[in-house]
Amino acid sequence: MPEYSLQQIFAVTPSVCTRYLAFAMEILLDAFKVIPEAAISWLVEDSEFGDYAAMIELHHPLLQKGFCFVDGVNIPVAESEVDDIQNAYYNGWTCSHYCSNVPAFAPVGCLIWCSVNGPGSWHDAAMARGLYDKLVNRTPEGYYAFADSISPQSS
């Protein structure tokens, strides 16, 4: 929701709205730090990969050993006054300014990996480099992530 909408809904000035949003983000961050379930972490046990793959296979029998879903999300951002920053966040394909994010979700809905706040000019594949490392080095043989164009066709 745009900040100006919050200003209108709650009848506050821009400076007050900005202050409360920053305050709320600090509280949210503090809460997430003490809630283990809020952690974004890669799977540890091989059995977790199997459990998640089984959940997906239950609904889609032809999809075996896929354990998570990955897709890029572009979040609109304001244009910067600084040309270099504006250029970095400009996405020529959509003709707008974005902040790029690539989350990986387990079938239970939790995040198991993410790359956030990248320049909008970056392709999802560039944002997902850390994910490739996890898939190659910390994923049991045969398991894979469901993705679209972020993934190269070769192994």
UniProtKB/TrEMBL annotation:
The lineage of its organism: Eukaryota, Sar, Stramenopiles, Oomycota, Peronosporomycetes. This is DDE Tnp4 domain-containing protein.
